[in-house]
Design brief:
The chain has about 400 residues and is mainly alpha-helical. Helices cover about 50% and strands about 10% of the residues. The protein has helices at about 50-60, 75-85, 100-105, 110-115, 125-140, 155-160, 170-175, 185-230, 255-280, 290-315, 330-350, 365-375, 375-380; strands spanning about 5-15, 35-45, 65-70, 95-100, 120, 145, 160-165, 180. Helix 8 (about 185-230) packs antiparallel against helix 11, helix 10 packs antiparallel against helix 11 (about 330-350) and helix 10 runs parallel beside helix 12.
């Protein structure tokens, strides 16, 4: 009966003089010998609907289930097999069923070695539960444990994630648990795992996006510092004295500056979007695999973005001069920081690309990136003279 997952109970009787029963005692002694057996009852503890599929989903996700129970080992093995926790066709090294007292009697090293293979542990007390969790934790596993009674509290505290049963669990267990399963259903535990995986995936994508934004912000910070550093030391041009004085109340950022700003943004966004949607054909990546072509295209987009900022520094420096390279050697700080920025960009792309999901570029792809950056000067040098409304 135990092999079939039945919990056994025996019904028996015997005659006993009533006067011999000590009724005044809280627990009167009743003899347990010389009984006449009436029946042996097998109680079936059926698995809940859908539990087998839920356990299979956990196994597919890399989560190994372990059934730790106070039932007899034979009964526990039968129930575990029915639920799919213990696979009937598995070998002994894959899934192990063991008595709790046998596990407790092992040495610490043996416990750690065998703990990974245990899927059923019968006749277990909360103390043996704690030993199993400790052995798994020392092996580096992330352990989640469930509990109901107050004696399960040490095991729940030792586990990385503790789950308390909302219906059958005591208030103390609920207080020391990380998650409370309100309906005591295994499906709810599976839902928790699904949300955990979803949140982990979302967080991973968020960190990748945040890293990309941080890199762009890092370059923005570098180029902002370049402007702050070279600005006070830039020698004034004679053309500046030809500018009319600033009228009181006139905005600090003029209409011409706003026009150049929007034109520069429009150019950079358009150029990078064209690379994004038509980069494979422009860069002649049709013969490469889809993943490889995507990485190369994204690297060129990033590289072009950086060089747009590099050449935009020249535009900011020479807003009122004709030649963007005029007097560049007179400002050693500006010239040096630009050279260092370009060298750092080459090192990042050619040597450190693995950290930002970039690959090395050939000379043609470098020329395309530099060319896109250089032509941002065309947008900055747009002739606004025919538009008197935009003049300073």
């Amino acid at each position: 009966m135990a092999n079939k997952g039945l919990r056994c109970a025996a019904l028996a009787y015997r005659t006993y003089p009533e006067e011999d029963i000590h009724r005044n005692e809280a627990f009167p002694y009743i003899p347990e010998s010389n009984l006449v057996l009436l029946a042996i009852i097998g109680i079936k503890d059926s698995c809940r609907p859908g539990i087998r599929q839920a356990i299979q989903q956990c196994r597919n996700a890399g989560v190994k289930m372990c059934m730790v129970t106070g039932d007899d080992l034979l009964t526990a093995k039968a129930i575990a097999t029915e639920c799919g926790i213990l696979r009937a066709t598995s070998d002994e090294t894959a899934d192990t069923a063991i008595l709790a007292k046998d596990f407790a009697s092992m040495s610490a090293s043996t416990k750690r070695k065998i703990a990974e293979n245990i899927v059923v542990m019968g006749r277990s007390s909360p103390d043996e539960n704690l030993l199993l969790i400790e052995a798994l934790s020392k092996k580096g596993h992330v352990v989640a444990a469930t509990g109901k009674g107050i004696r399960d509290a040490p095991s729940l505290r030792q586990a990385d994630v503790s789950l308390a049963m909302g219906i059958g669990g005591t208030s103390i267990i609920k207080e020391c648990s990380d998650i409370i399963v309100l309906d005591d259903s295994f499906d709810s535990i599976l839902t928790v795992g699904n949300f955990q995986s979803l949140h982990q995936l979302i967080l991973s994508f968020f960190l990748i996006k945040l890293l990309s934004i941080s890199i762009c912000s890092f370059y923005g910070l570098i180029f902002s510092l370049i402007l702050l550093e070279h600005g006070p030391w830039e020698p004034p041009s004679d053309n500046l004295m030809r500018r009319p004085p600033l009228i009181k109340g006139e905005p600090f950022i003029t209409k011409l500056m706003w026009a150049k700003f929007f034109l520069q943004v429009a150019y950079q966004v358009t150029a990078l979007l064209v690379l994004h949607f038509y980069g494979e054909s422009i860069l002649k990546l049709e013969n490469k695999s889809l993943d490889c072509a995507k990485i190369v295209k994204n690297t060129v987009i990033f590289n072009s973005f950086v060089f747009c900022q590099v050449f935009n520094e020249f535009e900011c420096r020479t807003s009122y001069q004709g030649n963007i390279f005029s007097g560049i050697l007179k400002n050693h700080l500006f010239f040096g920081t630009i050279i260092i920025s370009v060298i750092l960009q080459v090192i990042v792309i050619e040597c450190l690309g693995i950290f930002i999901s970039a690959v090395r570029l050939d000379w043609k792809q470098w020329l395309i990136s530099i060319g896109i950056g250089f032509f941002s000067q065309v947008a900055g040098r747009f002739p606004f003279q025919p538009f008197p409304y935009l003049r300073n």
